[in-house]
């Protein structure tokens, strides 16, 4: 968990979303409203009102559509959605490259249709018949073990090597890793669940669910004006996220089209690597701390997210500023200080998480926290160096527990007529 784990990439429209939302109506049919830290857009449709996939009678929340095809997969730079599911599959015994390719074809066809607000291609459950696409995104990735199972070991990138062990890890192997990874997000819970059921049914006999987790974020429109999200500790969380308008954003987040790696890894050009961590927050212990103590742990004010050194949320940390006692105003072990890119050789990653709550345990404490998902061009230059520093002395470590982990190669977005991962599986 880092200082910027909960942010939307930025309150700006991406090319993917612009193309997916405008559709045949053109730019004059686009209404923009930034609410709740997410971009809410309305779209017009050629379909008659009331027909499947029609956006004519829908509010902007339901009508928002994200394009399936594109340079990058959906669900990476798109704004945070209100509801999410993340899950991993293992290929069934005896299933290999052929079965994996057929599965990715099915998943891609389903994702394309559902993201357009249409019904699933086979045996639709009817769960989402009354809703539009509601910003639905489906994102697919490959785990380290996938390449052994499919005979593609030579095409496995070095960046997918297993993450190192961290002293604070308390990982459950049954809820970690997996051959295939799927991320689902939507601004409507039924739309998200509909996609989850469709993905599960599409797996058929080819793959079995290894683990599945459910998450949520603040709903679009819940705040009077756009703002960075808060996590379950109540902290403004995501201030330092890189933004798509940054000149080096693509370099940090996406694998370059031509790089130093071997040609057999070129299928990842335009893709990204997702680190997924289930981070339990020890909320009862956290809530016992005074406001001043919580702010010292984070290094930011709780009300606004501004650095303890002054200014507003976007003000840079004045890490050299000393207080009247001669000590740093932002403590040496404060989460914001340790995770700051300036303290980690410029290491950066795009955090796009969901919060989760899985009930109250037998001891009366909530099983709640963060489904941490971060994106980077190379995890050895993004997640790993930052987490190593946090592992050595982050004051927040006393109040969190890393319970599961996974690293996945997420290939680029499919072109027209392609399925996700086709360049790997058929290249």
Automatic annotation (TrEMBL):
InterPro entries: Dimeric_a/b-barrel, Dyp_perox_C, Dyp_perox_N, Dyp_peroxidase, EfeB/EfeN, TAT_signal. Its EC number is 1.11.1.-. Keywords: Heme, Iron, Lyase, Metal-binding, Oxidoreductase, Peroxidase, Signal. Coiled coil: none annotated. SUPFAM superfamilies: Dimeric alpha+beta barrel. Residues 228-413 form the Dyp-type peroxidase C-terminal domain. It comes from the Bacteria. Binds 1 heme b (iron(II)-protoporphyrin IX) group non-covalently per subunit. Its main location: other. PANTHER family: DEFERROCHELATASE (PTHR30521:SF4), DEFERROCHELATASE/PEROXIDASE (PTHR30521). Involved in the recovery of exogenous heme iron. Extracts iron from heme while preserving the protoporphyrin ring intact. This is Deferrochelatase.
């Amino acid at each position: 968990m880092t200082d910027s784990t909960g942010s939307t990439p930025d309150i700006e429209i991406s090319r993917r979303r612009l193309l997916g939302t405008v559709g045949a109506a053109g730019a004059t049919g686009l209404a923009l409203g930034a609410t709740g830290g997410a971009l809410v857009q309305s779209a017009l449709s050629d379909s008659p009102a009331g027909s499947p996939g029609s956006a004519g009678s829908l509010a902007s929340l339901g009508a928002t559509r994200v394009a399936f095809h594109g340079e990058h997969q959906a669900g990476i730079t798109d704004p945070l959605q209100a509801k999410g599911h993340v899950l991993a599959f293992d290929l069934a015994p005896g299933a290999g490259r052929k079965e994996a390719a057929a599965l990715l074809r099915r998943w891609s066809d389903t994702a394309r249709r559902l993201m357009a607000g249409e019904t699933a291609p086979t045996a639709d459950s009817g769960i989402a018949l009354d809703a539009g696409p509601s910003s639905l995104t489906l994102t697919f990735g490959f785990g380290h073990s996938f390449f052994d199972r499919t005979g593609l070991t030579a095409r496995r990138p070095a960046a997918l090597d297993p993450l190192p062990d961290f002293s604070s890890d308390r990982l459950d192997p049954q809820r970690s890793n997996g051959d295939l990874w799927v991320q689902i997000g939507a601004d409507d819970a039924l739309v998200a669940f509909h996609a989850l059921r469709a993905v599960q049914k599409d797996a058929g006999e080819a793959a079995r669910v290894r683990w599945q987790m459910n998450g949520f974020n603040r709903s679009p429109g819940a705040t009077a004006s756009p703002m960075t999200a808060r996590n379950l500790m109540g902290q403004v969380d995501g201030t330092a996220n890189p933004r798509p308008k940054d000149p080096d954003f693509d370099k940090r987040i996406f694998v370059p089209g031509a790089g130093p790696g071997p040609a057999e890894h070129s299928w990842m050009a335009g893709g990204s690597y997702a680190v997924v961590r289930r981070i339990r927050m020890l909320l009862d212990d956290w809530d016992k701390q005074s406001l001043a103590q919580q702010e010292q742990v984070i290094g930011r004010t709780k009300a606004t997210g501004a650095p303890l050194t002054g200014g507003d949320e976007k003000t840079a940390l004045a890490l050299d500023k000393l207080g009247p006692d001669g000590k740093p105003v932002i403590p040496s072990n404060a989460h914001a200080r340790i995770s700051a890119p300036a303290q980690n050789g410029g290491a950066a990653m795009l955090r796009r998480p969901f919060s989760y709550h899985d009930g109250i345990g037998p001891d009366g404490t909530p099983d709640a926290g963060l489904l941490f998902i971060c994106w980077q061009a190379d995890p050895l230059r993004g997640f790993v160096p930052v987490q190593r520093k946090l592992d050595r002395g982050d004051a927040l470590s006393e109040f969190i527990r890393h319970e599961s982990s996974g690293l996945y190669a997420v290939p680029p977005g499919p072109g027209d007529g392609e399925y996700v991962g086709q360049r790997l599986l058929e290249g």
